[in-house]
Design goal:
Distance between the termini: 59 Å
Strand content: under 5%
Oligomer: single chain
Radius of gyration: 25 Å
Structural class: mainly alpha
Helix content: 55-70%
Amino acid sequence: MKKRYKNIYIYHYNRNMVTITLRRLWIIGLITLICFNSVAVYYVSETTCGKPFIPILLSRALTTDPWRGMTLSYSLLGIAASFTLNSSILTTAFFGFFSAFLVSMFDTALSHDFLIVTSCVLILFECMPRIWQFDLWTIHFLSVIVFSIVCVVWMMYSKYSGTYTLHDQHCSWMFITEYILIWLMNALVLWIIPSDMTPKDAICEEGKAKRTTASAADKRSAAEQQNKTNLLEF
């Protein structure tokens, strides 16, 4: 809506008209994640594996700067979005991702791996289909499970079988399964986001509701006390 005032156009925007749903924001974040992950893998792979291009482990590429900072920022946004969903499990999962890439600044590879695995399990648990039937949600979830198994089996085999060199353990086209796994797992959250949900802080909303309820109770108590006083005076 625009209003003309002294030959100057002034635009008035209704806040309810300019809204964006949480699901759309998550899709934008997912596209951003895929883009900067792809760029990170390309540049880090060149310095680690040389040319021609060979994929490197995504979690390894994201532990280098500036990609670590971008991943930490994405995790913080995931934590903020989980407040809207009022899901302590998702909040813990994204805080786990945040902690994993934070501790990666130190020589704590096992701590990083444990945090990543725990966070992935939490997301799978929270985003599990509510009803097991042949639909897109179930297919999506099972695809994540399949890529998880393939990725873990390959990494364990390449590390402990003794048939691969250290270069092969760090550089392999099989790591593409990890890329697909991470992106599919982030996309899995879309299934539990209501289509009309807008970003808001559920913690603050709950606090406001409690304060409103307490205020109403105080008013009722005061009114009842006043009625008792009036009756005694009468």
